[in-house]
Structures are given as structure tokens and as C-alpha cells.
Amino acid sequence: GTAFVVQWDKVYLQGKEELGSFTFQAALHSSGRIVFGYKEIPVPVLQISAAQHPVKAGLSDAFMVLNPAPDVPESRRRTIYEYHRVELDTSRITNRSAVEFTPLPS
User: Fold this and answer.
1) Assigned domain for 45 exists
2) Exposed (0-12), middle (13-18) or buried (19+): which is 49, by Cβ within 10 Å?
3) Tell me: the pLDDT tens digits for 8-49?
4) Which long-range contacts (CB under 8 A, 24 or more apart) does 3-9 make?
5) Which PANTHER family does the record cross-reference, listed alphabetically (predicted)?
6) Cα-based distances in Å from 31 to 38, 59, 99, 100
């Protein structure tokens, strides 16, 4: 094939299931293009609470390290080291919308 596509289907916000479900895709094309497709976005992304987890949309280049948590035995603390980030304007993520990233010429 020429693309790898992942779809998240009927994803609900925890504790806010009554708002409806989200359905969206990410497609990685062999040409280097990356396309995010948003089929169902029941509430504006700007209205999603970031109290329990940050709300982000876009691309980032990062890696994660798991270190033992000194205060809780048998658990690990996750540290994310981010190199670069391209954030999307979340006000533009709506039903039946898409965002395309195209590679720079090399």
C-alpha cells in the first residue's frame, strides 16, 4: 500500500459521554504527507477541559523515559522530552475537516 491509516472510532471524553463520540484518522503516506481527518467532533476542541490531561493537536518529535517514582514503590514516572512541535489551531478542528502536512523538498 501507499499509506498507513489509523482510525479512532467512537471515542468518548471520560465523564462526559453525554456530549457524544469523536471519530478521527491519521494517515501517513509513502510520499511523506501526513493527513489528519476529523469525521465527528461533537464539541469544540477549545471546550475540552485540560484539567486532567493536556489537550493538544498537531505533530511533535519527542521521546519518553520511564523512571522509578521515589514516593510510590513499584511505579514509574513518565518524562517526555520534546524536540519540536507543530500545533494546530484547534478552533479549525470541526466535523468533516482535515489538515494536511506536506514534507519540505530535500
Assistant:
1) yes
2) exposed
3) 999 999 999 999 999 999 999 999 999 999 999 999 999 999
4) 3/27, 3/28, 3/29, 3/30, 4/28
5) PLEXIN DOMAIN-CONTAINING PROTEIN 1, TUMOR ENDOTHELIAL MARKER 7 RELATED
6) 21, 17, 16, 12
Max CA-CA distance within the chain? 49
Domain count, the chain: 1
Predicted pLDDT of residue 75: 82
* Separation between Cα atoms, residue 83 and residue 78, nearest integer Å: 16
What is the rounded CA–CA span in Å between residue 13 and residue 20? 8
Instruction: Identify whether 86 is part of a domain.
Output: yes
Q: Which domain holds residue 62?
A: 3-101
Distance CA 1, CA 11 (A): 27
Residue 38 in any domain: the answer is: yes
Q: Could you read off the pLDDT of 61-99 as tens digits, one per residue?
A: 999 999 888 787 778 888 999 999 999 999 999 999 999
